[in-house]
Amino acid sequence: MSQLEQESLDDEWTSGRAADSESSEEEFSKLMRRHRWKRNERLTLCIFRRFYEHDWTQMTKVFTRAFQVVPKARLESLQGARLQMLHAQMSDMRRFRVLEYREVFENHPFCEPLSGNLARLERRLKTAARSAGVVLRRRYEEPAVVRQPCGRA
What we know:
Blueprint: H1 3-15, H2 24-34, H3 39-51, E1 52-53, H4 56-66, H5 75-96, H6 99-106, H7 116-132, E2 137-138
Antiparallel strand pairs: 1-2
C-alpha cells in the first residue's frame, strides 16, 4: 500500500466515515493493526509496570492520556479493548525480552532514580496521571515476577 493510500485510509478512519458501520471492537481492531508501538510507548509502559503500583484500568487511563492513540470521542467505548492491548503488549515484551523491556527491567537497578530519557518519560507519565485523575504510588520493593502455569514468566 502506498503512503498516499495509507494517509487516505487514516483520514477516512479519523473522520468517522469508516467507523459509522462498524462496532467498537472492529474499530479497535482496525486501529491496532495500524498502530505501530513506538519506543517511548514501550518504555513508558515498562516504567509504569515496574515502578508504580497500579491496576490495569488505571494504567489504561494514564497511558491513553500520555499517548493519544484512540480518538477522544471513542475513548470510553474502547476502554476495555485498550486495556487488553496494553496487557498483551506487556506480555509480549516480557516474553520476547525486547530491548525496551530489558532497558527498564534488567539494565536499570530498581533503587536508583531514573535518568535521561527514562526520567523524561517518567515525568510525562506523572503529568498524564494527574491529568487523568489517577494517583500514582511508587513501589518500594521490586515487583515479583509472576509465573504463568506453563512456567514462563
